[in-house]
Amino acid sequence: MTAELKKLFLCALSRREIEHEISMAETMIEIEGSCFPDCTFEDGYIAALNYVLGCQGSNVREEYEQLISERHDAETETA
């Protein structure tokens, strides 16, 4: 390995924030299957790494919040 690969990497996100992202993604899978049917595994992998590097925001959060809002609205209508 080169010396550059051995450097310590620090992430601006906490472990809790990353675990929350995982939890949101798992919930979306349980409810919808995939909210990103047009994306490949590699697209998701790239998005996740860019999120951890701080190069882009969460792809999951907006979809998760919309999904939960829609479920809440549907439950309110049936109540």
Characterise this structure.
Helix 1 (15-32) packs across helix 3 (59-78). The chain has one domain. The chain is elongated and about 60 Å long. It has 3 helices and no strands. It is mostly helical and 79 residues long.
Brief sketch in words of this structure:
The chain has one domain (14-78).
Structural class: mainly alpha
Low-pLDDT stretches: none
- Strand share of the residues? under 5%
- Topology as H/E string? HHH
| Overall 3D form | elongated
Helical coverage, percent range = 55-70%
Radius of gyration: 16 Å
Number of domains: 1
First-last Cα distance:
61 Å
- Biggest β-sheet, characterized? none
Number of strands: 0
Mean pLDDT value: 89
Number of helices: 3
Keywords:
3 helices; 79 residues; mainly alpha
How do the helices and strands line up, and which of them pair or pack?
Elements: H1 15-32, H2 41-53, H3 59-78
Helix pairs in contact: 1-3
